[in-house]
């Protein structure tokens, strides 16, 4: 059983999907995972970090 969008997806449905559809669902589920970033929530010029390059 695969869990998609917080809902269980029965094996009968999963096996009925094309490989492309299965790949899309797997990618979507990975995208939904929370990201951990070292500077998350800090201002762009926080101490210890370089500001972005000028254009």
Structure description:
Residues 35-55 are annotated as: Disordered. The chain is 35% helix and 11% strand. With 55 residues, the protein is an alpha+beta fold. Strands 1-2 form a two-stranded antiparallel ribbon. Strand 1 (2-4) and strand 2 form a beta hairpin. It is elongated and about 55 Å long. The mean pLDDT is 78.
Estimated share of beta-strand residues: 5-15%
- Secondary-structure element order, as H and E? EEHH
Shape: elongated
Mean pLDDT: 78
Going across the major beta sheet, what is the strand order? Answer: 1-2
Question: What does the secondary structure layout of this molecule look like, with pairings?
Answer:
Blueprint (H helix, E strand, L loop, with lengths): L1 E3 L2 E3 L1 H6 L2 H13 L24
Antiparallel strand pairs: 1-2
Spell out the key features of this protein.
2 strands, 11% strand, two-stranded antiparallel ribbon, alpha+beta, single chain, 55 residues, 35% helix
Structure at a glance:
By secondary structure, the protein is of the alpha+beta class.
């Amino acid at each position: 059983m695969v869990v998609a969008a917080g809902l269980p997806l029965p094996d009968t449905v999963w096996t009925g999907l094309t490989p492309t559809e299965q790949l899309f669902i797997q990618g979507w589920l990975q995208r939904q995972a929370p990201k951990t970033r070292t500077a998350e929530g800090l201002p762009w010029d926080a101490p210890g970090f370089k500001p972005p390059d000028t254009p």
